[in-house]
Specification:
It is built from eight helices and nine strands. With 260 residues, the chain is an alpha/beta fold. The strands form two sheets. Strands 2-3-4-1-5-6-9 form a seven-stranded mixed sheet, with helices on both faces. It has a two-stranded antiparallel ribbon with strand order 7-8.
Length: 260
């Protein structure tokens, strides 16, 4: 616990509160369902978004349909991730998976649906949203907006024109403008077709390049509601992938401005 809290509560009370918080994080971890078709970057998203690593020796065993895994967080605590089966392979498979979605999704705190931002055909994702994901989340919740649903548009570093500054690990202005325009169009189109999506529930990013992970994390925190405090606030640092002289400059700037 920080020194300010020590001053308010006293050392003993602050220590007890810290123990309660640690115990709560360990025994009742936040549950996040991650959904997306094969190849959209779900695992990289989890690792870099939460600065997490899979607890291999303590991973929970799941069924062949929905995997349950626990990740250790760098700042302490555990994250429980439900890796949902990919959809869109066929009507017969989706009919089976729909029951799994109905069973699993109401149990989680947040749902992150990962899409590839450079994908030009969105019809299948819209069908998955409207026919499977939204109904599963609304089951027993009275309908309306699905506040715990967040959409992540991943792999924007592959969008054309590809002009990524590898030295800074950041898109060139022309590419950044193109990314923004394209992803805003996707977000508007998704919300038009799936009105249950919140106005600010769609974010674009690159898990591989660690670009705009902070924005995605903020959206997840807002969607998590009462369990938001359990989510880690430290995403993987994009400047760790920049050139050494850039890393040195950023570290010096952060020190001068009191940032870690």
């Amino acid at each position: 616990m920080n020194s300010e809290l020590h001053g308010i509560l006293g050392a003993e009370a602050a220590q007890k509160l810290g123990d309660v918080i640690s115990r709560e994080r360990a025994t009742n971890p936040p549950r996040i369902a991650v959904i997306g078709k094969a190849g959209v970057g779900k695992t990289t998203t989890i690792n870099n978004l939460f600065s997490a690593r899979l607890k291999v020796s303590h991973a929970l065993r799941g069924t062949s349909e929905a995997g349950h895994k626990e990740f250790e967080l760098r700042g302490g605590g555990i994250l429980h991730v439900v890796d949902m089966p990919g959809l869109g392979e066929g009507l017969a498979e989706d009919a089976v998976f729909e029951e799994i979605y109905r069973e699993e999704l109401p149990k989680v705190d947040v749902v992150l649906y990962v899409m590839q931002a450079s994908e030009r055909i969105l019809g299948e994702d819209q069908r998955i949203f409207s026919e499977l994901v939204v109904p599963a989340l609304q089951a027993g919740r009275g309908g309306g907006k699905v506040k715990q649903l967040v959409v992540g548009l991943n792999k924007v570093d592959l969008m054309k024109p590809v002009q990524w500054d590898e030295r800074l690990n950041y898109p060139e202005p022309v590419m950044e403008k193109s990314i923004q325009g394209r992803c805003q169009d996707i977000a508007r189109h998704l919300r038009d077709q799936v009105p249950e999506l919140g106005a600010d529930s769609v974010n674009y990013y690159s898990a591989e390049k660690r670009y705009r992970l902070d924005d995605l994390m903020l959206t997840l925190v807002e969607a998590a509601g009462k369990v938001a405090w359990k989510l880690p606030k430290e995403t993987a640092d994009p400047f760790e992938l920049a050139d050494p002289d850039v890393q040195e400059f950023v570290a010096r700037w952060r020190a001068e401005h009191g940032e870690n």
